[in-house]
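In response to reviewer comment 3 from the previous cycle, which asked for concrete evidence that the modeling workflow produces usable outputs, we include below a single protein chain processed end to end. The sequence was submitted unchanged, and the resulting C-alpha coordinates are shown without manual editing.
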Amino acid sequence: MTDTPGGNELWTRDGAELAAGIRAKEFTAAEVAEAFLRRIDEVNPVVNALVDVRPDEILARAAELDRAVAAGGPLAALHGVPVATKINTAQRGYASSHGIPAWADAVAADDAACVAALRDAGATLLGRSNSPAFAVRWFTDNALHGRTLNPWSAGHTPGGSSGGAAAALASGMVPIAQGNDIGGSIRYPAYCCGAVGLRPTVGLVSAWEPAGDVEFDSPMSFQTMAVQGALAWTVGDLRTATRVMAGADLRDPVGVPAVPRFARSGPIRVTVVRDVGIAKPHPSVDAALDTAARLLSAAGHEVEEAAELPELVEAARLWSLLLFEELRTMLPEIEMFGDAGVKDSLASTFRVAAEIWGEQPTLAAYIRGYARRGTLITRLQQYLGADRILLTPVSAEPPLEQDADLAGDDRMREVVAAQWPLQAVPVLGFPAVAVPTGPAGGLPSGVQLIGGRFREELLLDAAAVIEAGTSRSRPVIAAAHG
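The workflow returned the following C-alpha coordinates.
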Protein backbone atom coordinates (compact mmCIF):
# COMPACT_ATOMS: atom_id res chain seq x y z
CA MET A 1 0.00 0.00 0.00
CA THR A 2 2.86 2.42 -0.67
CA ASP A 3 3.13 2.82 -4.46
CA THR A 4 2.21 6.07 -6.13
CA PRO A 5 -0.93 5.64 -8.29
CA GLY A 6 -0.08 5.83 -11.95
CA GLY A 7 -1.50 8.02 -14.69
CA ASN A 8 -2.52 11.64 -14.66
CA GLU A 9 -6.17 11.27 -13.76
CA LEU A 10 -7.91 14.39 -12.51
CA TRP A 11 -8.28 13.00 -8.98
CA THR A 12 -4.47 12.77 -8.68
CA ARG A 13 -4.02 16.52 -9.26
CA ASP A 14 -3.85 19.10 -6.52
CA GLY A 15 -6.30 21.94 -6.13
CA ALA A 16 -4.03 24.51 -7.76
CA GLU A 17 -3.73 22.38 -10.91
CA LEU A 18 -7.47 21.79 -11.00
CA ALA A 19 -8.34 25.47 -10.61
CA ALA A 20 -5.81 26.45 -13.27
CA GLY A 21 -7.09 23.79 -15.68
CA ILE A 22 -10.71 24.87 -15.24
CA ARG A 23 -9.72 28.53 -15.69
CA ALA A 24 -7.80 27.65 -18.88
CA LYS A 25 -10.72 25.48 -20.13
CA GLU A 26 -8.53 22.38 -20.33
CA PHE A 27 -11.34 20.55 -18.56
CA THR A 28 -14.57 21.52 -16.84
CA ALA A 29 -15.65 21.67 -13.22
CA ALA A 30 -18.17 18.94 -14.11
CA GLU A 31 -15.41 16.68 -15.42
CA VAL A 32 -13.44 17.28 -12.22
CA ALA A 33 -16.46 16.51 -10.05
CA GLU A 34 -17.21 13.34 -12.02
CA ALA A 35 -13.61 12.15 -11.65
CA PHE A 36 -13.66 12.61 -7.90
CA LEU A 37 -17.09 11.01 -7.57
CA ARG A 38 -15.74 7.96 -9.41
CA ARG A 39 -12.78 7.89 -7.05
CA ILE A 40 -15.11 8.09 -4.05
CA ASP A 41 -17.16 5.19 -5.45
CA GLU A 42 -13.95 3.15 -5.78
CA VAL A 43 -12.33 3.68 -2.40
CA ASN A 44 -14.80 5.16 0.09
CA PRO A 45 -16.56 1.81 0.67
CA VAL A 46 -13.18 0.59 1.96
CA VAL A 47 -12.01 3.68 3.89
CA ASN A 48 -15.36 5.17 5.01
CA ALA A 49 -13.98 8.71 5.12
CA LEU A 50 -16.89 10.63 3.56
CA VAL A 51 -20.60 10.45 4.37
CA ASP A 52 -23.66 12.05 2.77
CA VAL A 53 -22.18 12.44 -0.71
CA ARG A 54 -24.92 13.73 -3.05
CA PRO A 55 -23.86 13.35 -6.71
CA ASP A 56 -26.84 15.21 -8.18
CA GLU A 57 -26.22 18.30 -6.04
CA ILE A 58 -22.49 18.15 -6.69
CA LEU A 59 -22.91 17.96 -10.46
CA ALA A 60 -25.49 20.77 -10.40
CA ARG A 61 -22.98 22.94 -8.52
CA ALA A 62 -20.26 22.02 -11.04
CA ALA A 63 -22.54 22.98 -13.93
CA GLU A 64 -23.17 26.34 -12.27
CA LEU A 65 -19.42 26.88 -11.95
CA ASP A 66 -18.91 25.97 -15.61
CA ARG A 67 -21.47 28.56 -16.65
CA ALA A 68 -19.42 31.14 -14.76
CA VAL A 69 -16.32 30.10 -16.73
CA ALA A 70 -18.24 30.41 -20.00
CA ALA A 71 -19.44 33.89 -19.00
CA GLY A 72 -15.84 35.05 -18.84
CA GLY A 73 -15.99 36.84 -15.50
CA PRO A 74 -13.39 36.69 -12.72
CA LEU A 75 -13.03 33.32 -11.01
CA ALA A 76 -12.23 32.79 -7.32
CA ALA A 77 -9.23 30.88 -6.00
CA LEU A 78 -10.94 27.48 -5.57
CA HIS A 79 -13.24 27.62 -8.59
CA GLY A 80 -14.33 24.03 -9.22
CA VAL A 81 -11.96 22.50 -6.65
CA PRO A 82 -13.52 19.63 -4.60
CA VAL A 83 -13.50 20.24 -0.83
CA ALA A 84 -14.88 18.11 2.01
CA THR A 85 -16.58 19.58 5.08
CA LYS A 86 -16.76 17.97 8.51
CA ILE A 87 -19.88 16.48 10.08
CA ASN A 88 -19.60 18.77 13.12
CA THR A 89 -19.62 21.98 11.04
CA ALA A 90 -22.76 23.57 9.62
CA GLN A 91 -23.35 23.24 5.88
CA ARG A 92 -26.66 24.42 4.48
CA GLY A 93 -29.03 21.51 3.89
CA TYR A 94 -26.81 18.92 5.62
CA ALA A 95 -26.95 17.47 9.11
CA SER A 96 -24.46 18.62 11.72
CA SER A 97 -24.69 15.16 13.20
CA HIS A 98 -21.43 15.00 15.15
CA GLY A 99 -21.69 11.25 14.52
CA ILE A 100 -24.59 10.98 16.97
CA PRO A 101 -27.67 8.98 15.87
CA ALA A 102 -30.06 11.26 17.79
CA TRP A 103 -28.74 14.24 15.79
CA ALA A 104 -28.88 12.58 12.36
CA ASP A 105 -31.65 14.96 11.26
CA ALA A 106 -30.15 18.15 12.71
CA VAL A 107 -30.05 19.82 9.28
CA ALA A 108 -28.34 23.22 9.17
CA ALA A 109 -30.31 26.13 7.70
CA ASP A 110 -27.15 28.03 6.81
CA ASP A 111 -23.41 27.60 6.37
CA ALA A 112 -20.84 28.12 9.09
CA ALA A 113 -18.64 31.09 8.25
CA CYS A 114 -15.72 28.88 7.19
CA VAL A 115 -17.95 26.79 4.89
CA ALA A 116 -19.48 29.94 3.39
CA ALA A 117 -15.96 31.21 2.68
CA LEU A 118 -15.08 28.01 0.83
CA ARG A 119 -18.34 28.17 -1.15
CA ASP A 120 -17.73 31.83 -2.02
CA ALA A 121 -14.23 30.90 -3.23
CA GLY A 122 -15.80 28.58 -5.80
CA ALA A 123 -15.27 25.25 -4.10
CA THR A 124 -17.38 22.25 -5.01
CA LEU A 125 -18.46 20.87 -1.63
CA LEU A 126 -18.07 17.17 -2.28
CA GLY A 127 -19.14 15.44 0.91
CA ARG A 128 -19.07 15.40 4.68
CA SER A 129 -16.03 13.94 6.45
CA ASN A 130 -16.41 11.54 9.34
CA SER A 131 -15.32 12.20 12.93
CA PRO A 132 -15.73 10.63 16.36
CA ALA A 133 -18.85 11.47 18.35
CA PHE A 134 -18.56 14.92 19.92
CA ALA A 135 -15.14 15.22 18.17
CA VAL A 136 -13.28 14.37 21.39
CA ARG A 137 -11.14 11.35 20.40
CA TRP A 138 -7.92 10.95 18.40
CA PHE A 139 -9.71 8.02 16.69
CA THR A 140 -12.54 8.28 14.15
CA ASP A 141 -15.47 6.02 14.90
CA ASN A 142 -19.08 6.69 15.86
CA ALA A 143 -22.42 4.92 16.18
CA LEU A 144 -24.01 6.78 13.26
CA HIS A 145 -21.44 6.47 10.47
CA GLY A 146 -19.07 3.77 11.70
CA ARG A 147 -15.29 3.60 11.68
CA THR A 148 -12.95 5.42 9.30
CA LEU A 149 -9.82 3.48 8.37
CA ASN A 150 -6.35 4.85 7.84
CA PRO A 151 -5.67 4.26 4.11
CA TRP A 152 -2.12 3.22 4.97
CA SER A 153 -3.03 0.64 7.61
CA ALA A 154 -6.44 -0.51 8.82
CA GLY A 155 -4.92 -1.34 12.18
CA HIS A 156 -3.88 2.24 12.90
CA THR A 157 -5.94 5.34 13.53
CA PRO A 158 -6.44 7.89 10.75
CA GLY A 159 -6.39 10.39 13.61
CA GLY A 160 -9.19 12.39 15.09
CA SER A 161 -11.24 14.22 15.20
CA SER A 162 -10.81 15.23 11.52
CA GLY A 163 -9.90 11.64 10.66
CA GLY A 164 -12.36 11.38 7.78
CA ALA A 165 -10.90 14.54 6.25
CA ALA A 166 -7.32 13.26 6.36
CA ALA A 167 -8.25 9.77 5.13
CA ALA A 168 -10.15 11.32 2.21
CA LEU A 169 -7.07 13.37 1.29
CA ALA A 170 -4.70 10.42 1.48
CA SER A 171 -6.95 8.23 -0.65
CA GLY A 172 -7.51 10.89 -3.33
CA MET A 173 -11.18 11.67 -2.69
CA VAL A 174 -10.54 15.42 -2.32
CA PRO A 175 -7.45 17.67 -2.51
CA ILE A 176 -8.62 19.96 0.33
CA ALA A 177 -10.76 19.43 3.43
CA GLN A 178 -12.13 21.64 6.18
CA GLY A 179 -11.48 20.63 9.78
CA ASN A 180 -11.32 21.98 13.30
CA ASP A 181 -8.86 21.65 16.16
CA ILE A 182 -8.99 22.03 19.94
CA GLY A 183 -6.51 19.31 20.86
CA GLY A 184 -4.86 18.24 17.62
CA SER A 185 -7.94 17.45 15.52
CA ILE A 186 -6.40 18.95 12.35
CA ARG A 187 -2.72 18.27 12.98
CA TYR A 188 -2.94 14.69 14.24
CA PRO A 189 -5.04 13.29 11.35
CA ALA A 190 -2.70 15.02 8.88
CA TYR A 191 0.23 13.30 10.62
CA CYS A 192 -1.44 9.89 10.67
CA CYS A 193 -2.42 9.98 6.99
CA GLY A 194 0.57 11.77 5.44
CA ALA A 195 -1.27 15.00 4.62
CA VAL A 196 -0.63 18.59 5.71
CA GLY A 197 -2.81 20.45 8.19
CA LEU A 198 -2.70 23.96 9.62
CA ARG A 199 -4.22 25.00 12.91
CA PRO A 200 -4.46 28.80 12.49
CA THR A 201 -4.18 31.48 15.16
CA VAL A 202 -7.36 31.69 17.24
CA GLY A 203 -9.68 34.23 15.58
CA LEU A 204 -8.04 34.25 12.15
CA VAL A 205 -10.67 31.91 10.68
CA SER A 206 -14.15 32.65 11.95
CA ALA A 207 -15.64 29.97 14.19
CA TRP A 208 -19.16 31.40 13.80
CA GLU A 209 -21.92 28.88 13.18
CA PRO A 210 -25.65 29.46 12.75
CA ALA A 211 -27.71 28.72 15.84
CA GLY A 212 -29.62 25.45 15.69
CA ASP A 213 -32.87 24.55 17.37
CA VAL A 214 -31.11 24.87 20.73
CA GLU A 215 -28.64 27.74 21.15
CA PHE A 216 -25.22 26.52 22.31
CA ASP A 217 -23.25 28.76 24.68
CA SER A 218 -19.64 28.08 23.73
CA PRO A 219 -17.47 27.38 26.81
CA MET A 220 -14.42 29.53 27.46
CA SER A 221 -12.00 26.82 26.32
CA PHE A 222 -13.85 26.54 23.01
CA GLN A 223 -13.60 30.31 22.53
CA THR A 224 -9.90 30.50 23.43
CA MET A 225 -8.62 27.18 22.00
CA ALA A 226 -10.88 25.85 19.23
CA VAL A 227 -10.25 26.86 15.62
CA GLN A 228 -11.58 26.13 12.15
CA GLY A 229 -8.95 25.40 9.52
CA ALA A 230 -7.89 23.30 6.57
CA LEU A 231 -6.11 20.09 5.68
CA ALA A 232 -4.73 19.43 2.20
CA TRP A 233 -2.49 17.12 0.25
CA THR A 234 -0.02 19.91 -0.62
CA VAL A 235 1.31 22.94 1.22
CA GLY A 236 0.31 25.15 -1.69
CA ASP A 237 -3.32 24.07 -1.41
CA LEU A 238 -3.18 24.46 2.36
CA ARG A 239 -1.96 28.03 1.94
CA THR A 240 -4.74 28.85 -0.52
CA ALA A 241 -7.45 27.28 1.62
CA THR A 242 -6.25 29.12 4.72
CA ARG A 243 -6.18 32.45 2.92
CA VAL A 244 -9.67 31.83 1.59
CA MET A 245 -11.06 30.91 5.01
CA ALA A 246 -9.36 33.75 6.92
CA GLY A 247 -11.53 36.79 7.35
CA ALA A 248 -12.76 39.45 9.71
CA ASP A 249 -15.96 38.35 11.43
CA LEU A 250 -17.13 40.05 14.60
CA ARG A 251 -19.88 37.46 15.09
CA ASP A 252 -17.05 35.28 16.38
CA PRO A 253 -16.37 36.41 19.98
CA VAL A 254 -12.62 36.17 19.36
CA GLY A 255 -12.71 37.05 15.65
CA VAL A 256 -10.16 39.53 14.36
CA PRO A 257 -11.47 42.87 13.04
CA ALA A 258 -9.05 42.75 10.10
CA VAL A 259 -6.93 39.96 8.61
CA PRO A 260 -3.22 40.62 9.19
CA ARG A 261 -0.73 40.01 6.40
CA PHE A 262 2.91 39.57 7.29
CA ALA A 263 5.74 39.44 4.77
CA ARG A 264 8.81 37.46 5.76
CA SER A 265 12.29 38.91 5.27
CA GLY A 266 15.51 37.02 5.84
CA PRO A 267 16.04 33.49 7.11
CA ILE A 268 13.85 31.79 9.69
CA ARG A 269 15.28 30.85 13.07
CA VAL A 270 14.26 27.29 13.95
CA THR A 271 14.40 25.85 17.46
CA VAL A 272 14.12 22.06 17.64
CA VAL A 273 12.24 20.80 20.70
CA ARG A 274 12.40 17.01 20.84
CA ASP A 275 11.66 15.96 24.40
CA VAL A 276 10.27 18.13 27.19
CA GLY A 277 10.37 15.33 29.75
CA ILE A 278 6.79 14.11 29.28
CA ALA A 279 7.26 11.33 26.69
CA LYS A 280 10.45 10.14 25.04
CA PRO A 281 10.11 10.36 21.24
CA HIS A 282 10.00 7.11 19.27
CA PRO A 283 13.06 6.60 16.99
CA SER A 284 10.94 7.28 13.90
CA VAL A 285 9.80 10.58 15.44
CA ASP A 286 13.41 11.55 16.16
CA ALA A 287 14.30 10.65 12.58
CA ALA A 288 11.51 12.87 11.24
CA LEU A 289 12.83 15.79 13.29
CA ASP A 290 16.33 15.13 11.93
CA THR A 291 15.01 15.15 8.36
CA ALA A 292 13.09 18.40 8.81
CA ALA A 293 16.01 20.11 10.58
CA ARG A 294 18.42 19.07 7.83
CA LEU A 295 16.14 20.35 5.06
CA LEU A 296 15.54 23.68 6.79
CA SER A 297 19.26 24.12 7.48
CA ALA A 298 20.14 23.30 3.86
CA ALA A 299 17.69 25.99 2.76
CA GLY A 300 19.66 28.59 4.69
CA HIS A 301 17.65 28.77 7.89
CA GLU A 302 19.32 28.89 11.30
CA VAL A 303 18.57 25.66 13.19
CA GLU A 304 19.37 25.04 16.85
CA GLU A 305 18.39 22.47 19.47
CA ALA A 306 16.62 23.58 22.65
CA ALA A 307 17.77 22.05 25.91
CA GLU A 308 14.37 22.78 27.43
CA LEU A 309 11.29 24.92 26.93
CA PRO A 310 9.29 24.64 30.17
CA GLU A 311 6.48 26.85 28.87
CA LEU A 312 5.44 24.05 26.51
CA VAL A 313 5.31 21.58 29.40
CA GLU A 314 3.06 23.88 31.41
CA ALA A 315 0.82 24.57 28.42
CA ALA A 316 0.41 20.85 27.67
CA ARG A 317 -0.61 20.13 31.27
CA LEU A 318 -2.95 23.12 31.47
CA TRP A 319 -4.87 21.70 28.50
CA SER A 320 -6.17 18.82 30.61
CA LEU A 321 -7.33 21.25 33.30
CA LEU A 322 -8.93 24.04 31.29
CA LEU A 323 -10.59 21.92 28.60
CA PHE A 324 -11.59 18.94 30.69
CA GLU A 325 -13.11 20.93 33.54
CA GLU A 326 -15.44 22.45 30.97
CA LEU A 327 -16.05 19.09 29.31
CA ARG A 328 -17.08 17.84 32.76
CA THR A 329 -20.14 20.12 32.55
CA MET A 330 -21.08 18.41 29.25
CA LEU A 331 -20.86 14.85 30.60
CA PRO A 332 -24.64 14.47 31.13
CA GLU A 333 -25.22 15.23 27.43
CA ILE A 334 -22.39 12.92 26.40
CA GLU A 335 -23.80 10.20 28.64
CA MET A 336 -27.23 10.63 27.06
CA PHE A 337 -26.21 10.80 23.38
CA GLY A 338 -22.65 9.45 23.14
CA ASP A 339 -21.59 5.99 22.04
CA ALA A 340 -19.68 3.52 24.19
CA GLY A 341 -16.34 4.49 22.65
CA VAL A 342 -16.52 8.17 23.51
CA LYS A 343 -17.86 7.45 27.00
CA ASP A 344 -15.10 4.94 27.81
CA SER A 345 -12.38 7.10 26.29
CA LEU A 346 -13.42 10.20 28.23
CA ALA A 347 -13.76 8.27 31.49
CA SER A 348 -10.21 6.98 31.11
CA THR A 349 -8.90 10.42 30.16
CA PHE A 350 -10.50 12.00 33.22
CA ARG A 351 -8.85 9.39 35.44
CA VAL A 352 -5.45 10.16 33.90
CA ALA A 353 -6.02 13.93 34.23
CA ALA A 354 -6.89 13.42 37.90
CA GLU A 355 -3.33 12.20 38.46
CA ILE A 356 -2.17 15.73 37.62
CA TRP A 357 -4.98 17.94 38.89
CA GLY A 358 -6.83 15.80 41.43
CA GLU A 359 -10.27 14.20 41.26
CA GLN A 360 -12.15 17.50 41.53
CA PRO A 361 -10.00 20.54 40.68
CA THR A 362 -11.14 23.65 42.50
CA LEU A 363 -12.51 26.82 40.95
CA ALA A 364 -9.41 28.58 42.25
CA ALA A 365 -7.16 26.13 40.37
CA TYR A 366 -9.16 26.74 37.20
CA ILE A 367 -8.89 30.53 37.59
CA ARG A 368 -5.16 30.30 38.28
CA GLY A 369 -4.82 28.09 35.20
CA TYR A 370 -6.28 30.74 32.94
CA ALA A 371 -4.11 33.40 34.58
CA ARG A 372 -1.03 31.26 33.99
CA ARG A 373 -2.07 30.76 30.36
CA GLY A 374 -1.70 34.49 29.71
CA THR A 375 1.80 34.51 31.19
CA LEU A 376 2.87 31.54 29.04
CA ILE A 377 1.54 33.19 25.89
CA THR A 378 3.48 36.38 26.62
CA ARG A 379 6.72 34.54 27.39
CA LEU A 380 6.61 32.36 24.29
CA GLN A 381 5.54 35.21 22.02
CA GLN A 382 8.56 37.20 23.21
CA TYR A 383 10.82 34.19 22.66
CA LEU A 384 9.54 33.57 19.12
CA GLY A 385 9.62 37.21 18.06
CA ALA A 386 9.03 37.92 14.38
CA ASP A 387 11.15 35.21 12.77
CA ARG A 388 11.51 32.18 15.07
CA ILE A 389 9.51 28.96 14.85
CA LEU A 390 9.57 25.76 16.88
CA LEU A 391 10.14 22.36 15.28
CA THR A 392 8.53 19.66 17.45
CA PRO A 393 7.03 16.21 17.09
CA VAL A 394 3.35 16.02 16.23
CA SER A 395 3.18 13.10 18.63
CA ALA A 396 5.93 11.26 20.48
CA GLU A 397 4.63 8.00 18.97
CA PRO A 398 3.96 6.86 15.38
CA PRO A 399 0.26 6.76 14.44
CA LEU A 400 -1.49 4.95 17.27
CA GLU A 401 -3.10 1.54 16.97
CA GLN A 402 -6.87 1.63 16.56
CA ASP A 403 -8.69 2.25 19.85
CA ALA A 404 -5.52 2.69 21.89
CA ASP A 405 -7.57 5.01 24.10
CA LEU A 406 -9.85 2.08 25.00
CA ALA A 407 -7.04 -0.26 26.04
CA GLY A 408 -7.04 0.71 29.73
CA ASP A 409 -5.70 3.53 31.85
CA ASP A 410 -2.06 2.46 31.52
CA ARG A 411 -2.20 2.76 27.76
CA MET A 412 -4.26 5.95 27.98
CA ARG A 413 -1.58 7.46 30.21
CA GLU A 414 0.98 6.76 27.48
CA VAL A 415 -1.32 8.16 24.77
CA VAL A 416 -1.96 11.42 26.63
CA ALA A 417 1.75 11.84 27.32
CA ALA A 418 2.68 11.18 23.69
CA GLN A 419 0.26 13.86 22.49
CA TRP A 420 1.85 16.69 24.49
CA PRO A 421 2.82 18.67 21.33
CA LEU A 422 -0.82 18.63 20.20
CA GLN A 423 -2.11 19.79 23.60
CA ALA A 424 0.29 22.67 24.22
CA VAL A 425 -0.61 24.67 21.12
CA PRO A 426 -4.38 25.21 21.72
CA VAL A 427 -3.71 26.56 25.21
CA LEU A 428 -1.41 29.17 23.66
CA GLY A 429 -3.73 29.96 20.75
CA PHE A 430 -0.73 29.91 18.40
CA PRO A 431 -0.71 28.56 14.82
CA ALA A 432 0.90 25.21 14.07
CA VAL A 433 1.25 23.09 10.96
CA ALA A 434 1.77 19.33 10.60
CA VAL A 435 3.85 18.40 7.56
CA PRO A 436 4.96 14.91 6.44
CA THR A 437 8.59 13.86 6.19
CA GLY A 438 8.05 10.54 4.41
CA PRO A 439 7.03 7.06 5.53
CA ALA A 440 8.59 5.15 8.42
CA GLY A 441 7.84 1.47 8.91
CA GLY A 442 5.02 1.57 6.38
CA LEU A 443 3.24 4.44 8.14
CA PRO A 444 3.36 8.20 7.52
CA SER A 445 5.65 10.30 9.69
CA GLY A 446 6.05 14.02 10.06
CA VAL A 447 6.72 17.02 12.25
CA GLN A 448 4.95 20.03 13.73
CA LEU A 449 6.00 23.65 13.23
CA ILE A 450 4.76 26.21 15.77
CA GLY A 451 4.86 29.97 15.24
CA GLY A 452 3.85 33.12 17.03
CA ARG A 453 0.37 34.54 16.63
CA PHE A 454 -0.60 35.33 13.02
CA ARG A 455 2.65 33.88 11.64
CA GLU A 456 0.91 31.35 9.41
CA GLU A 457 2.83 32.43 6.31
CA LEU A 458 6.13 31.86 8.11
CA LEU A 459 5.07 28.34 9.03
CA LEU A 460 3.83 27.58 5.52
CA ASP A 461 7.11 28.79 4.03
CA ALA A 462 9.02 26.39 6.27
CA ALA A 463 6.55 23.58 5.56
CA ALA A 464 7.06 24.14 1.82
CA VAL A 465 10.82 23.64 2.28
CA ILE A 466 10.24 20.32 4.04
CA GLU A 467 7.69 19.24 1.43
CA ALA A 468 10.07 20.05 -1.44
CA GLY A 469 12.75 17.81 0.03
CA THR A 470 10.47 14.90 0.85
CA SER A 471 9.32 12.01 -1.30
CA ARG A 472 5.50 11.90 -1.39
CA SER A 473 3.16 9.08 -2.28
CA ARG A 474 -0.40 8.00 -1.72
CA PRO A 475 -1.37 4.54 -0.50
CA VAL A 476 -2.75 2.09 -3.00
CA ILE A 477 -6.24 1.04 -1.94
CA ALA A 478 -7.91 -2.04 -3.30
CA ALA A 479 -11.34 -1.07 -4.66
CA ALA A 480 -14.35 -2.60 -2.97
CA HIS A 481 -16.20 -5.29 -4.92
CA GLY A 482 -19.72 -6.57 -4.67
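The first strand starts at residue 50 and ends at 51. We consider this sufficient to address the reviewer's concern, and the full set will be provided in the supplementary archive.
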